[in-house]
Automatic annotation (TrEMBL):
It comes from Lotus japonicus. It is found in: Nucleus, Nucleolus. This is BRCT domain-containing protein. The keyword Nucleus applies. It holds the Pfam family BRCT_2. Its main location: nucleus. One of its GO terms (molecular function) is RNA binding. GO terms for biological process: maturation of LSU-rRNA from tricistronic rRNA transcript (SSU-rRNA, 5.8S rRNA, LSU-rRNA). CDD domains: BRCT_pescadillo_like. Keywords: Nucleus, Ribosome biogenesis, rRNA processing. Residues 117-207 form the BRCT domain. GO terms for cellular component: PeBoW complex.
Amino acid sequence: MSLFSVLLISRLYHSINLKYPPILDPQLEALAADLYALSRYANADPKPSVLNSEASLLAGSEQVESKQNRAVTEKEHSELRLAQLQHQLPSNEPGALMQLVDKVAGEEVEEDHDTRECKNLFKNMKFFLSREVPRESLLFVIPAFGGTVSWEGKGAPFGESDDSITHQIVDREAQGHRFLSREYVQPQWVYDSVNTRVILPTEKYMVGKDSSTALVTFC
């Protein structure tokens, strides 16, 4: 992999508060919980310094360069990063190019309102995934929007009997004990809440209800 690719990937990882290179929990990875194994190692600092990490990646290659060439090389790296990312900017976002230039120059750019809102959508909510639901996508979506999540099986951070669980994601009627302190909802409730950026009422998403037409599906 080229140095420029490493720099670009590093920026993308840090944009979602993940360290690069990623550290995976081998036990969770073996249990097919790959996305959760990655997301649990998210940075504690919500605003990591992207350029500090990039500088550490550059250090190994720059040791073999002379002082005379070093300044030129760093300038070329910055220009190339700017060119690689510029085409991804939405055309209808005013000031987007200047924000990108500020990032490359090392200036901290504050998260926009939508980003902060998304990260806290499921804040203070604790989810448990029943065996029959699509685990991989929910293990990614719920933590990405601020929630805590667990599942049935080995490596789970907490069990189904945890009294602090607020929502249990199910796709069929519970056969055993039903906890009155939590809501039982279909997976579509999570996706629709994410799409609308609002915690939706759960009545239409209870087991047995047709939630397929409630809102658009998650994409």
